[in-house]
Amino acid sequence: MKLDRLLLSSALLVGSLFAGTYKVDKSHTNVGFQVKHMMISNVKGSFDNFDGSFIYDEKTKKLKNLNATIKVASINTADKERDEHLKEEELFAAKKFPEIKFKLTKIENGKAYGDFTLRGITKNIALDINEISTVKDPWGNERAGFSLEGKINRQDYGIK
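User: That's the sequence. What structure does it adopt?
Assistant: Structure tokens below.
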């Protein structure tokens, strides 16, 4: 199993004009992944339980801060047996390491760099970031949306 893609797609809300702190809107956010299985097919999955927030400066159009926490036990590949297997010690070790974390360290050349922690191991990774867009919803709330996508090597995190 090799993790081909980690995708954080998000529509977020709660902000103010120019610079605002946004909180993840779980009903409009996906934390997903794609894994090459036996070099034959791709298995897609997601994590259903996560939290996150970021600071976005509307004036400069820059992401200033981003923190995300993903609950490993919420893994969902649409196959209950596989999900239970993925939580076991040789893979995600969900009981020993219940959370995956990402903390933004910088934005540079269209990439979001951050400390990514999986199975208690933290490495700085680069994720492609699409342009952040903002809009007011029909109720006057400021919303911002963007996605991050990148690859990690599972072996860097002790996943056999």
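The helical segments are 80-86.
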